[in-house]
């Protein structure tokens, strides 16, 4: 069976974008693939994380996975830092990848802001660690939101360059003509790019300082309704055709969220709401969001009451992940020419 890997950072509150852009897909892929879902805590510390908050957030992402329907027994759920292969392979990839590749990444430019010299070195090398996450399992498919497309292209470049740079050694060690697969991105969720509720040109993010910019999976019904009511919009009624959403990013985003949550298309949403004002549309959207997210948030809160149980899921998953990744890393060491024990 083809193998899927994907990760979510424990860098703050999980939101509707993470759910519709990634987690819904994670759940669906369990039917047809062997899946590895990772709470990427080493990625999270590329920007400052308060240590006590970080532990809580690692457990919260795990709870969100399970509450959304990911089965940690049939598939693998763990946190990245428990499997040291991620760090070991990332170092080798740091030496394969070029600084120029990293400098071109839009996520680095966005997150580093104006003061690039003062960003962590880890933030620059982020895509190299991400390539290690995926290739440590020789994963063939990676479900992500649209914002991660560029990083996945870099993963393909790193795999290709490793395969080329070491082609002779790869063959000499009996691995054929390629050590790493060229990974396929799966950018196919019900909504691959949900925008901020405060600014229709910025993606919804955990790391956005404004809580009103996003709907968190743990928000209660009142909070969800209030955030949608306060969401930025223009003053016009909704159009009756999708074309009419052009140049109206906030309206486009809210209609897209409705369609994704209802499992329909934007056009179908406009068939119902075209010509109506936001004052009518927003309460309907709020109700739909509460009905979809409410049960997940409730289950997350229930799971969070037993941190020992969550930690046991992560430990068991880490042991199974290690069993796959360690032999892959041993092969890399042989190919590179390192000497290793036994
Ligand atoms: P941060 O702001 O800390 O980077 P994030 O909200 O971007 O957090 P990540 O942990 O970086 O979340 O990403 C987890 C997954 O969610 C990735 O697959 C990413 O592509 C997806 N994702 C993140 N934001 C959105 C969004 N607004 N719409 C759709 N998918 C998203
Ligand atoms: Mg992100």
Q: What does this entry look like structurally?
A:
This protein is mostly helical and 342 residues long. The chain folds into 2 domains: 3-192 and 306-336, 3-Layer(aba) Sandwich (Rossmann fold); 218-302, Tyrosyl-Transfer RNA Synthetase, CATH 1.10.240. Helix content is 55%, strand content 6%. The protein is built from 14 helices and 5 strands. The protein has a 3-stranded parallel sheet. Strand 1, helix 1 and strand 2 (34-39) form a beta-alpha-beta unit. It is globular. The model has no long low-confidence stretch (mean pLDDT 97). The chain binds adenosine-5'-triphosphate (ATP) and magnesium ion.
Structural class: mainly alpha
**Main sheet summary:** 3 strands, parallel
pLDDT average, as an integer? 97
The span between the termini is: 30 Å
Question: Notable features of this structure?
Answer:
Rossmann fold; Tyrosyl-Transfer RNA Synthetase; binds adenosine-5'-triphosphate; 2 domains; globular; mainly alpha; 342 residues; binds magnesium ion
Protein topology:
Layout: E1 3-8, H1 16-29, E2 34-39, H2 41-44, H3 51-68, E3 76-79, H4 85-96, H5 99-103, H6 106-112, H7 121-135, E4 141-143, H8 149-165, H9 167-172, E5 184-186, H10 221-230, H11 249-262, H12 266-273, H13 278-304, H14 307-336
Parallel strand pairs: 1-2, 2-3, 4-5
Bound molecules: adenosine-5'-triphosphate and magnesium ion.
């Amino acid at each position: 069976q083809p193998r899927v890997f994907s990760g979510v950072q424990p860098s703050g509150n999980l939101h509707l974008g993470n759910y519709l852009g990634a987690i819904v897909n994670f759940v669906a892929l369990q039917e047809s693939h062997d899946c590895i879902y990772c709470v990427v805590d080493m990625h999270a510390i590329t920007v400052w994380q308060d240590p006590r908050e970080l532990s809580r957030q690692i457990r919260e992402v795990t709870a969100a996975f399970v509450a959304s329907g990911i089965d940690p027994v049939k598939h693998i759920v763990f946190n990245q830092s428990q499997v040291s292969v991620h760090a070991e392979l990332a170092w080798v990839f740091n030496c394969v990848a070029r600084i120029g590749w990293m400098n071109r990444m839009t996520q680095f430019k966005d997150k580093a802001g104006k003061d690039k010299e003062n960003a962590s070195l880890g933030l620059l090398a982020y895509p190299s660690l991400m390539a290690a996450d995926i290739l440590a399992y020789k994963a063939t498919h990676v479900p992500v939101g649209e914002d991660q497309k560029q990083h996945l292209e870099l993963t393909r470049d790193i795999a290709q360059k490793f395969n080329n740079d070491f082609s002779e050694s790869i063959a000499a060690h009996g691995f054929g003509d390629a050590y790493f697969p060229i990974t396929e991105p799966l950018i196919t969720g019900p909504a691959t790019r949900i925008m901020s509720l405060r600014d229709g040109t910025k993606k919804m993010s955990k790391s956005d300082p404004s809580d009103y910019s996003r709907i968190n999976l743990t928000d209660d019904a009142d909070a969800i309704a209030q955030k949608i009511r306060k969401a930025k919009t223009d003053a016009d009624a909704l159009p009756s055709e999708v074309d009419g959403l052009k140049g109206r990013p906030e309206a486009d985003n809210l209609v897209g969220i409705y369609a994704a949550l209802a499992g329909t298309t934007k056009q179908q949403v406009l068939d119902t709401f075209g010509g109506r004002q936001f004052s009518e549309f927003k309460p309907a959207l709020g109700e739909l969001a509460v009905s979809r997210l409410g049960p997940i948030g409730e289950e997350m809160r229930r799971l969070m009451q037993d941190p020992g149980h969550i930690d046991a899921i992560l430990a068991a998953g880490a042991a199974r992940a290690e069993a796959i990744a360690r032999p892959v890393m041993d092969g890399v060491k042989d190919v590179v020419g390192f000497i290793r024990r036994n």
